[in-house]
């Protein structure tokens, strides 16, 4: 696929979206909502098939700059980091007051768990840590419907997505650099405990990281920045691959700062209520858009919310009882353990090492070497743990005033947290401090093969598709979600385009 320059992408993205030129409302053949992993795949493949697509995204398109600080960060907290908050409520950060703003991260506080989700053009690819892992076959085949072939994903779709995202393991000299000292310590600890460590494919752009190490651009990845964006473009995020390719087809138009607030079925079409905002987050207008085909890719919590609300209000009465179910935290647990040896001048953000531990704990567990994202030497190691929890699931339901909320007990995270702490103690020889009160990996709510068919076609709603992390059956199966979400979307789009639907 021909590479599209950043300049051309920005010019294409700035063009007025199809159907929005006159304001008020419009009808378009197809709308994709959400420009993260699932939505970007859908937009590209529909555009290549010659379908005119409007891609609606609630967040901003953020620039990159080699030297300026475009995003906020853990060490300079500001409103650019959070989606409409009055007080910073990101776990672990001080509650700094701020003016509500369309920042890059939604922090959704639910009973029993706080959920993190991206809110910008490129979705999770802008704020994630770049880990591009596939789940092991042994867990995938226990979790997903039997009609989904792991062999096919392994041969066709995981490699296709890794290639599109330029996922590579860390180069040796970068791994051996000072900001990756904490990772080398993590690897040595696991090896000493007899647990094999592997290198993870990552979508960090190692050329940019090399330039950071050489002092040629403002340091970002090497000082622990990632979760609120890398100002110098240190990741191969979706604004560098799928999205420019989609816009370059000439069939896809991007509407940033357009939030879909409700969906209904009317006269054989889907009608969307949309709030358009300006760059400061002020509402410019309310639109109503209609389409024949609708792809929802707003991520696990937002797709689930929109659909549960639509079903329970009667706006999409065909949705079945599985919508809202099989939601999970992907077994996320964050453990910090003291370490008094050298950890480097700062801890680089890219996660490049991982160990999958199948036995010996309440649930199988994947540990990843994450950073303590603060400047300077920090005498602490951060182990991100992802548990293969087959049982604990939440349900999204409508409540008072039609608000959709999550039913999840804090105790449902216990197996993941206990496993993570015990593993950390085994490898580190010291008790760490852990929490599973938040998840960066929400999955499920519109489970594949139950709420939809195996290509994301929503049961009971012709022309409606879900192609995002809400398809995942409550747990990825021993991996971070992005690769699996994208691979399932690629597989679905092949089938949808072939079927001419
Ligand atoms: C800090 C952090 C680190 C992470 N690290 C990793 C990692 O290393 N590897 C990995 O695999 N995963 C990681 N993840 C998880 C990963 O980002 C998600 O699993 C993935 O992005 C989900 O893809 P998606 O397509 O479902 O949704 P997203 O990528 O979240 O995209 C959804 C998009 O829809 C938009 N949207 C939402 N609601 C609306 C609306 N109503 N109207 C219009 N637009 C809307 C959002 O703004 C967003 O852009 C991380 C997540 C976080 C928060």
From TrEMBL:
Residue span, Glucose-methanol-choline oxidoreductase C-terminal domain: 436-489
Required co-factors: FAD
Domain Glucose-methanol-choline oxidoreductase N-terminal residues, every copy: 112-326
Pathway the protein contributes to: Steroid metabolism; cholesterol degradation
Keywords attached to this entry: Cholesterol metabolism, FAD, Flavoprotein, Isomerase, Lipid metabolism, Oxidoreductase, Steroid metabolism, Sterol metabolism
EC number from the UniProt entry: 1.1.3.6, 5.3.3.1
Domain of life: Bacteria
Listed GO MF terms: cholesterol oxidase activity
UniProt family annotation: Belongs to the GMC oxidoreductase family.
Protein's recorded name: Cholesterol oxidase
Organism: Kutzneria viridogrisea
Source organism phylogeny: Bacteria, Bacillati, Actinomycetota, Actinomycetes, Pseudonocardiales
């Amino acid at each position: 696929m021909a590479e599209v320059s950043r300049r051309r992408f920005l010019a294409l993205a700035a063009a007025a979206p199809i159907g929005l030129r006159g304001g008020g409302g419009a009808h378009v053949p197809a709308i994709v909502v959400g420009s993260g992993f699932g939505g970007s795949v859908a937009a590209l493949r529909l555009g290549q098939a010659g379908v005119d697509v409007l891609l609606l995204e609630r967040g901003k398109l953020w620039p990159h700059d080699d030297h300026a600080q475009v995003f906020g960060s853990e060490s300079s907290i500001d409103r650019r980091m959070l989606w409409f908050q009055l007080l910073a409520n990101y776990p672990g950060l001080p509650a700094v007051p701020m003016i509500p703003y369309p920042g890059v991260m939604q922090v959704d506080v639910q009973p029993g768990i706080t959920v993190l989700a991206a809110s910008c053009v490129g979705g999770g690819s802008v704020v994630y840590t770049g880990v591009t892992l596939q789940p092991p076959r042994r867990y995938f085949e226990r979790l997903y419907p039997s009609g989904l072939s792991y062999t096919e994903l392994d041969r066709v779709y995981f490699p296709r997505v890794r290639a599109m995202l330029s996922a590579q393991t860390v180069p040796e000299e970068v791994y051996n650099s000072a900001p990756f000292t904490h990772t080398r310590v993590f690897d040595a600890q696991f090896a000493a405990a007899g647990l094999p460590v592997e290198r993870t494919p990552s979508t960090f752009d190692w050329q940019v990281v090399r330039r950071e190490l050489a002092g040629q651009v403002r340091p970002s990845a090497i000082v622990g920045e990632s979760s609120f964006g890398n100002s110098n473009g240190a990741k191969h995020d979706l604004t560098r691959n799928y999205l420019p390719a989609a816009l370059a087809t000439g069939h896809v138009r991007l509407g940033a700062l357009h939030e879909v607030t409700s969906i209904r079925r009317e006269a054989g079409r889907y009608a969307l209520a949309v709030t358009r905002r300006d760059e400061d987050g002020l509402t410019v207008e309310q639109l109503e858009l209609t389409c024949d085909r609708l792809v929802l890719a707003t991520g696990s919590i937002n797709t689930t919310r929109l659909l549960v609300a639509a079903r329970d209000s009667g706006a999409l009465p065909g949705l079945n009882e599985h919508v809202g179910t099989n939601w999970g935290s992907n077994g996320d647990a964050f453990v910090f353990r003291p370490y008094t040896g050298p950890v480097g001048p700062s801890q680089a953000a890219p996660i490049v090492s991982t160990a999958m531990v199948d036995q010996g704990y309440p649930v199988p567990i994947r540990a990843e070497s994450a950073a303590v994202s603060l400047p300077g030497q920090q005498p602490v190691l951060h182990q991100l743990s992802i548990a293969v929890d087959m049982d604990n699931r939440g349900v999204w339901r409508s409540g008072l005033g039609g608000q959709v909320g999550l039913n999840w007990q804090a105790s449902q995270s216990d197996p993941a947290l206990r496993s993570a702490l015990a593993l950390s103690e085994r490898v580190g020889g010291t008790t760490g401090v852990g929490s599973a009160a938040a998840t960066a990996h929400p999955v499920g709510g519109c489970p594949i093969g139950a709420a939809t068919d195996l290509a994301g076609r929503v049961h009971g709603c012709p022309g409606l598709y879900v192609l995002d992390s809400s398809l995942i059956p409550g747990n990825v199966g021993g991996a971070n979600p992005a690769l699996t979400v994208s691979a399932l979307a690629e597989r679905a789009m092949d089938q949808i385009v072939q079927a001419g639907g």
